[in-house]
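Late entry, written up from scratch paper. The run itself happened at the end of the previous shift, but nothing got recorded in the book at the time, so transcribing now.
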Amino acid sequence: MRAAPFAVAIVIPALLLFGPIPSRRSDPAAAETARIRTHLATVERALRARDVTHLTPAQRAARARNLDVLHQYWTTGVFPTNTDFPGERMPYFIDRYGVRCAMAYLIEQSGRGDLVTRVAATNNNARIRELKGDPELVAWLDENGLTAAEAARIQPSYGGPPPQPLPPPPASAGYKATTTASVGLNATALILNSTHAGLSPRLSGALGILTGMSGVAAGVPNFDERGQRRTLGYVNAGIGAMSMVLGAYRLAARPRLASAAIVAPWVNQRGVPGLSLTVRF
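Output as recorded:
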């Protein structure tokens, strides 16, 4: 009576071969936009809560109008981009794409686009506290019921582009040669153990275990490396582990009449691609 076939499936996610897949959650631009929105929303609430009974009716009306414009500005969520100061937070009146900062937007919406253009041309990265000596700006703040300190709170700074990471070091020629030899030996052991190519189960199984152990030993120490060395380490350890499993099975299992090895694409429930190796005995 022929025994039912037995199958072993081994899956190697692409994560092991190529490293982690970047997540959209780590998008620095989105994080910067969220930070500025939170800042401006907090400032708006604080300014609306201020006692302004000392202001004239015209100043109170202008102040309320500007706070409404500020609310519309931060809810829209289009802010200047710091393209010139890596690793620093820097104010911009107008960025290189023409986007206005919160204070520039308020001033422009009040009809004083000329004032915005002049400040951007002469002091584009200045903080409001540095512009206290500008008579036109001081007059605008007074007319609109805002103090210089409040304007300084409204004006955010923008994070600079992140510094470029250093490229990962390439794997040495010696390690590439070692990996090629190790993978070749393990691939040979996999073939022998999956096809029963004329060798006794003990010999092919022992060969699979020994070569697999060498592959794992050569690969695991490189999991914490970067670039090609880490990738080759994962390849070495992954194929070595498969060789060990099949070798151990060959030593323990009875001979089968037929066997086959199938390599196929594989995708997990989260959509992460990889490879699957199915061996039937």
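The first strand starts at residue 7 and ends at 13.
(Scratch paper discarded after transcription.)
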